Amino acid sequence: MEISEVLGSNNKSICLFSPKFKQYSELIHGFTLRLGGYSFGSKQELNLGLHVHDDYEDVIKNRQILALSLGISANRIVA
Q1: Deepest in the core among 18, 37, 43, 56, taking most CB within 10 A?
Q2: For each successive 10 residues of the chain (79 residues), what is the average pLDDT?
Q3: How far, in Å, CA of 27 to CA of 7, rounded?
Q4: C-alpha span between 20 and 36 (Å, rounded)
Q5: What are the CA-CA distances from residue 65 to residues 17, 21, 24, 75 (Å)?
Q6: What does the CA dihedral 76, 77, 78, 79 come to, rounded to 10 degrees?
């Protein structure tokens, strides 16, 4: 996998990109680690999922961190 840094609130987030998806030019993909976001407790830091009972506002802020780093709108993120 290629590694590309995605900066979060602690300037330490990492997003991994697979070369297998490069053939789909219309697809922006990545696999995020949990470093650098706003979530706390068991959902710590860069949680992107609204389905795991994290604080809604924290998840939205986390998605905005990722979206800004990828140059896309946060409403395009599927988690």
Answers
A1: 37
A2: 59 72 85 81 84 92 86 88
A3: 21
A4: 26
A5: 17, 22, 24, 12
A6: -160
